[in-house]
Amino acid sequence: MPWHQWHLRDDQHVKLMDYLANYPVLQAMYVVKQKLVRPMLLKTVNTKRAKWKLPELMLILEHLKDSPLRTLGKTLSSGLQLIIAM
User: Fold this and answer.
1) Residue 12 to residue 27: CA distance in whole angstroms
2) Residue 69 to residue 78: CA distance in whole angstroms
3) Which residues does 21 contact at the CB level (< 8 Å), separation at least 6?
4) What is the mean pLDDT of the chain?
5) Kind plus residue range of the DSSP H or E element containing 20
6) What are phi and psi of 21, to 5 degrees?
7) Which end of the chain has less neighbouring CB within 10 Å, N or C?
8) What is the pLDDT of residues 13-54, one digit of tens each?
9) How far apart, in whole angstroms, are the C-alpha atoms of residue 73 and residue 77?
10) Structural domain count, the chain
11) Residue 25, C-beta contacts closer than 8 angstroms, at least 6 positions apart
């Protein structure tokens, strides 16, 4: 799934969601990916904006740990801990 949601036309997004509806795990991964990637692509992140976005990212990671995608959640959390340690 190489597409970002914001690069798709409305009809393309509808078709993609219809396709992903047949594969719930894949759909969940796509939705999580979109939520995680969007803040990471912000080019100008000041302290105020980071404080606003960080809890949102942490909440997503916590939900991942309790879902069928728990391995992905653990991997991202461990990577995040290393980044914060730097």
Assistant:
1) 15
2) 15
3) 27
4) 77
5) helix 10-20
6) -60, -25
7) C
8) 889 889 989 998 888 888 878 877 777 777 777 777 777 777
9) 6
10) 1
11) 68, 69
